[in-house]
Batch of 3 targets.
Target 1
Amino acid sequence: MIAELGWLPPPPLDFRQRCRALLEESGADVPALVRLATCALDENHLNRLARVVEAMRARGGALAGLTPFKLGIVSNATIDTIVPAVIATGVRLGLDITCVSAPFGLGVQAALEPDSTINAARPDAVLLAFDHHRIGAPPAGDAAAAERAVADALRAIDAMREGFRTHAGAISIVQTIASVPAALFGSFDRAVPGTSRRLADAFNAGLVERICGSQDVVVDVAALAESVGLEAWQSALQWNVAKFAFDARFVPAYAEWVCRVIAALRGKSRKCLVLDLDNTLWGGVIGDDGLEGIVLGQGDATGEAFLDVQRAALALRERGVVLAVSSKNDDAVARSAFREHSEMLLREEHIAVFQANWNDKPTNLAAIAAELNIGLDALVLLDDNPAERSLVRGTLPEVAVPELPDDPAQFASVLLAAGYFESVAFSEEDRDRARFYAENARRAALRESVTDIEAFLRSLAMEIDFRPFDAQGRARIAQLINKSNQFNLTTRRYTESDVLALERDPEIFTLQVRLKDTFGDNGMIGVVVARPSDPGEWEIDTWLMSCRVLGRRVEAMVLRELALHARERGIGRLVGRYVPTGKNRLVEDHYPKLGFALLERDPSGATSWLLDSAVEIEPAPMDVVRSGWAPSGAPST
Amino acid sequence: MTSERIYEELTEILDDVFGEDDLVATPELTAGDVPGWDSMAHLRVIFAVERRFGVKFSASQIDGLANVGELASLIESKLAQ
């Protein structure tokens, strides 16, 4: 996952063409460049993108909106492949990086000569990219020789740091060293001075000790190598052929690791983790499944996976990351999990801003950023729903939105691997920051909706499918009728044989609704039953929908369909009822929003509504597919 | 995989490495014909080929290729194994 930058969405299929377009245009479309950089790019992609960056710079100088950073690089290995990767990866992290490098292997000279290429360029920082070859190979078992080898290597590092500080005014970014996987003694290597493992450990410990408290910083290449696997990390062939310190397929991850440290130095790390709730912090939909129905906790593999997500969020909070919630949910229902569910690790006091409502996510994210008084570029959104992720990436590109696999067991590790909260320091103040925000943040006011929702809906390329009840859909219809709580106007429950009876009754109008979009088939997402009440009148007995498709104007399309069939059968009046259950407040205003007029209001809170079936209802951007009605009954549109 | 398909993939790889969409992989094409095809670019081509076709080359194979035709036959023989 790390080697492939699995937290980023895949590059667009026309990546080449888009690069070419940016190469050939006259200006510098930096936002388009950043969008391309924010994909899971391989080495070739990065190389191509770096060429685009160079061309844009040649045309217009610095890249507008990105932070310029001049990076020197010294290494005992080949860095030709690293330089373009660092330039392109920098764009992903908001940096406009230019590189200046020393000739192969000449790190010490580059640092100590005041007018060396690197010193003369006055870089902001110099990357000291050395691997295990820099330590030398003392004979295994010779403790004194091993100690000398490590001390010499560290002394050389110190000399370079001092040289770059004095002559270039630059800080040093120093790599830790990955050990070689091949063991001489086997497990006993741990006990023998001078083995690769012992040398690397001693070097890394010594390095961290001297860098802590200095102006310089570490990039933990040893940890990266361990994470992807030492055996895969080093390629003897690539070292022999071209002196590559590590297998070229890890160049993208390596560049990301280096650029994260630079971004952190420039204060670009993110500050706030925004959490979705249903199927992100727990399994299931609390509005439908109820407090007791959600999957969370020990003893169940899925429940434990969600505990891991909560644990990771809490650990981030402990180190100063602010937590917020953005969820399409009823506020009271969502909060009940935080207050009452015994397995919840996250509690209300951990959440600085709690946004559970039916607004779209971009609106809520903007409200969260405003409430915390931080930029959108400080937010990370963790959300299991690919449509929400895509909407946020499209409308608020500043917000980081990690891709998540289907399996919740991987959510926590993907979030942490994505490195959004990279730091170069940690203080007591950081620890208290999350608390500070939580105490000060008031519940954010809802902001007006983002305006280009229409464009987003069109981009979903939705196809809505209408059919009367049939044998194929029967089981799912019964399931929806018995399970849906939130988007359910009357909450009438029917068994499967009841459903069969409705299906067979020619007086009753039935409708099952399916929806497809660019992300795939959502399956059946709606059920409607209408029955004759007075002559020329239908009462909408049942209208329910899946909350997955909220905010897509599916309701309007369903009503259009209902009205078409009503007109077809000479029905002029449509009567809708809303029966409150405590769980369906979401649809309290369903009918008035669709243009129905109030008929009556019961003391119980139930309401009845009327619409003329001839009223034109504005369609939503989606294609309509319809089947299963006899030709005579089929509407003409 | 057909030989034709291999050349199509190689053309895409050359496009990736050199950023030249009018560069077509032919059996006779050599590094000398392409501006910028130095030893580092050669490795980029080789590594991209390894990733795309799921094959591995030895050092002597990497160094011993005279033209794109030899590269294509080597890929073909490795895929056949």
Note: Chain B touches chain A through 17 residues (CB under 8 Å).
Target 2
Amino acid sequence: MSNKTLTRTLPALTGVLFIGLWYLANAMLSSEQKFLLPQPHLILKAFQTNGDALWSAALNTLRGALLGFGLAVAGSFIVALVLSLTPLIRASLYPYLMILQMTPIIIIAPILILWAGPGTVSVTVITFLICFFPMVVNTTQGLISTDRNLVDLFRMCKASKHQEIFLLRVPAALPFFFTGLRIAATLAPIGAIVGDFYAGNSAGGQGGLGFLTIVYSSQFKIPALFATAVTSCALGFLFASTVIALSWFTMHKWHDSYSRTDS
Amino acid sequence: MPSLVQFNHVEKRYGEGPLILDRINFAAERGDFIALIGPSGCGKSTILKLIAGLSPISGGTVTVDGMVPENAIEELAFVFQEPTLLPWLTVQKNVEVPLRLRATRADHREQLAKTCLSLVGLSERAHYYPRQLSGGQKMRVSIARALSLSPKILLLDEPFGALDEMTRDHLNEELLTIREQKAWTAFFVTHSVAEAVFLSNRIFVLSANPGRLYREVPVDLPYPRTEETRQSARYQALVADVSKLLRSVERNQL
């Protein structure tokens, strides 16, 4: 078998093997315990029976995740620009950003619910809080890591501060920015689901996947819980792959990480 | 007419640090090609930075074309040790950067960039990105970028230091050929005695800790210089002389 066919068939084989092991594990459980590890086809069936609920919950979660993620990207970019100006600004703001990052979401959530009530606003804020920090840290690092000689070159050409930032520092920071974006993209759906778990709004079908998790677990609908997990994963993949595609689109022509190698 | 670049008792230290340059005096005339050579830490690169106005002097005076360096900035261009290209721009756009920053009209700057790229023999690579070029080609782009501003003074900080000897020799010849057409005055920092002798008409040998102008060696080889120049007895004698000087500088420091 050639290398190419191997790289195509092996991942599929791994999947088949995994599902086989799953059935095997299920078969080894006693009949009273079998419901704890529902067989894959039962999970597929759960998709069918709970399709509408899962779909609308996924959409609600997606909305919260997108809003929180979008605000985090925009906000972190602006904050990173400010932080990149001087070491003094960094020294005076970084500790407080750390505090924001270090406070566990499960403690922030009830406070948020008191302030904004359960619903999209709270979910968005929680997603924002989770995505914001890795974005700020990476983008700031990128903005201050510009090649010293290039900065000199710009100064010798009498570049304005505006030109220095937008023609030099920002594009030079793109690889860092995308590193932050990739981390944030995987966190965004998780953030929205966690937010929804604590601060989702059940009224009028506004609940997301987090809320659905509470419902299904209280009803012992284990196949449906697995279906919810799979849906969450799919949402995560959607986010991550969009960002990876975006990063490829922006940088593949010039960045070393996309250069073709022999291996 | 005053000299193009003049240093009078120039001293330089960074902050409260030790003296980097100690009472440097020289006058560079139009058309000079000055090579700066000396042990590490002798402040060769610092001299370039002072001419470019990138760093303030701590004592004495520097004039560039009769002005303080900050005001003469439009007359000079810098070629760094590394190619320092913008990786996200094509070769053509990289050469255009200085023109763009000085608000040259788009069609004009495209034309100028093309001319400079053809001077360094890279017209064919205009639409490549830097990562697709070899080290020597990147350095050529860097030189083309510096030339795009039609500088009076070109400051080169060990531009070929990282290249193999063949490429370096070749680029040295190219540099002199371009200079015949463009006639800038050059300051060229190098660690290679052979390169210094081949390119320049004056060699400044510096000593370190603090950096002092130890000796000036005039290079009386006629331009244009070619591979034959390298074979000549005079060239080889000069290389031997300067090497000997450099060794004595280094010995004095031990």
Note: The CA atoms of residues 141 and 176 of chain A lie 7 Å apart.
Target 3
Amino acid sequence: MAQTLYDKLWNSHVVHVDADGTALLYVDRHLVHEVTSPQAYDGLKLAGRKPWRAGSVVATADHNTPTTGWEQGIDGIRDPIARLQVETLDKNMREFGAKVYFPFLDRRQGIVHVIGPENGATLPGMTVVCGDSHTSTHGAFGCLAHGIGTSEVEHVLATQCLITKKMKNMRVLVEGPLARGVTAKDVALAIIGRIGTAGGTGCAIEFAGSAIRSLSMEGRMTLCNMAIEAGARAGMVAVDETTSQYLRGRPFSPAGPEWDQAVAYWSMLRSDPDAKFEREVTLEARAIKPQVTWGTSPEMVVPVDETVPDPDNEKDAVKREGIERALVYMGLKPRTRISDIRLDKVFIGSCTNSRIEDLRSAAAVVKGRRVARNVRLAMVVPGSGLVKAQAEQEGLDRIFIDAGFEWREPGCSMCLAMNADRLEPGERCASTSNRNFEGRQGDGGRTHLVSPAMAAAAAIAGHFVDVRSGF
Amino acid sequence: MQKFTRLDGLVAPLDRANVDTDAIIPKQFLKSIKRTGFGPNLFDAWRYLDHGEPGMDNARRPINPDFFLNQARYKGTEIFLARKNFGCGSSREHAPWALIDYGFRCVIAPSFADIFFGNCYKNGLLPVVLAEAEVDALFYDCASFPGFRLVVDLEQQSVSTTDGSRRYRFEVDPFRKHSLLNGLDEIALTLQHADEIRAFEAARREQFPWLFR
Ligand code: SF4
């Protein structure tokens, strides 16, 4: 029978299934970070258990590490509780072991969803889990990747399996060429705008179509990263030439004769031509414009040349109230032109958009210009130490610094404001991250999600502006 | 997970409905990196007269003498007697962790909040639902007889007074009963398939050796 990519990944990892469909799914790669792992390791210790296969674990500290003051070492972490979490991860790694651990201050440290792929620790055909919802990112490599809770982290550590049920198959097709200046982030936001934040609930989404095939691995990661914001626990893209090109020669990629063996297997990691999807949505790539969210949910999004919606035009009472509440929180009036929204801060970073390609595209916009006077802080936080080093080698850091941006150390930073990087109440930010929920970037902070190029353009203009206009 | 078979324990009553998980363990204690050590902060806001923060020496804090757990007669208690909708509010697993860390093995109430109820089983704390009138009678007993104990027998699904004069039956899901009686947590249940996992892993290693480098 014809199978989807998800069917293939699922079938090749089922260890055991109960009559009710509850399955034990084998886990190939377990990514670990400091915030959701301590209780899991503590639980193992209490029960006198050992990790089933420590070699499956790739770990780093990213969520609450600071992005400045690294020269002070561990003392640079001012919050004692954050520091304890980082130190506890160090201790657990010493005690329980891992394939590799990139601790705080290591040159390969970075956001967990950036370091896995860039080291070749995320490979096609794998099941990948992490105590973090944006694990969907790794699906870009033809993986089955999803986020799990702390009890599940402990379960996977102890048994190498996840207890789960099969999801539905959904396909999002994006066909045709993307317009110039339109990125994977805009595609992701346009999809969520179309299907809503619950559009993929209960599904594994495969992103397909010619526009997706033409995306780089960085772009595919951005797209799969946002699958969770469309309600899907997993997003994925079939393996092709782009995938293997990206992986060739990475530290943990297969090498020698195993490389050929792997590539031959990877070529089968695609949906069969007549495979059935329970849901299918098609978008025309050409019609997608640069996107800007105006509200407090990623589905509250419009193209940059439009206006903030008017709740009076919404017939559905629940939706109308949602719009009204979001506008109050965001401090916006109905029918305001998106390009009239002025900004206080700009954040380029997060596991959605902090890879080298993202930084290049932002730098291309910024080059030779200055951050607008009304923007109090514009910051670039590379996704990892390796991304940072690469960017510096290309001179991108100078471009940002000369324009008035701050060039920071890697980490999650202002994506979730667990460290010192945050918005003050009422501050408005153009952000390349993935969530614009109330308070996500700091209590009372107002987040607008955009692509790196759009964030860069907004920093220069001081307000949102269509990056394609040259402004 | 600790087994639960039969427990003969001292009963401590909290005569208040809708006790939420934020009362059971206030949010400032969630930053901890452990599942253990929450006992001293169980009901922190009610139990002490000052405001508690992580890292304080709880032994030196002023205690609220009126709070039931601070009364000498309930020292060493293992059975928590509660009113309806116990454990409502946030889903934090820290609430059962705190009750267990304090020394409780069983909570008896006329009803529980859903998530809390499930979290109890996950951690080896037995939640027992009895009829409102039965719980009323037990509150009366606690008030009248210092040192009042109950025998909770999971195999028999019964709660009885130590002299056997009164006995109440309770319902429990057969799968959860089996897990608790045998001290099996989800991990232990999965590990019953350890041979299957090992065989699967070996075959996978053979076929895709690069995944195991
Ligand atoms: S960058 Fe943001 S979304 Fe990504 S892992 Fe860190 S906190 Fe989560």
Note: The first strand of chain A starts at residue 14 and ends at 17.
